[in-house]
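We emphasize that the prediction below concerns an isolated chain of 162 residues; any contacts that depend on oligomerization or on bound cofactors are therefore not represented. The input was used exactly as deposited, without trimming of termini.
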Amino acid sequence: MAVTDIERLFLQAIMTRRIVSEKLAEELWRACVEAVRKVQPNIEAEQSWNEFFSNVKRLLDPLGLDIKGTTIEDTGHKAQVLVNTVGDEIAQLATSYTATEITFFKQVVELIVMAPNESYSAGEITCLKEGNQLPDPMKVPLRHGTKLLGSFIANGWLRKSK
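Result of the prediction step, given as a token string:
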């Protein structure tokens, strides 16, 4: 399947952002169509937004990428997020966190998901204890765990309850 200039331009716009609202995604698509039509007035761009979006998702699949719909927890707004669907070693290089820190993050997420009464939360001390109980090469000392939790929150990986 040939990639159109509209699709290329749209993908560039999406890749420069991590997350876009559904409204912005559709506005970006319209802007891409308009920009390409200025250079190529005879281009056929008669697909609907949904058809276009499905095609873009198909183009991303062989690259190990996808655009997933989600709801922003703080605002309730719908958004589209570009995600890596492959967890290989190369993908892990895309973060500044070490393998130990990623393991700690996974443990924290597991604590949140498995929280009693579907509270979907975990206390800081519980998280720190979990990190300190990991096997030796992956053990996260309490002081480092505290800094890591702060870093996860600052980078938007986690959110701290009030």
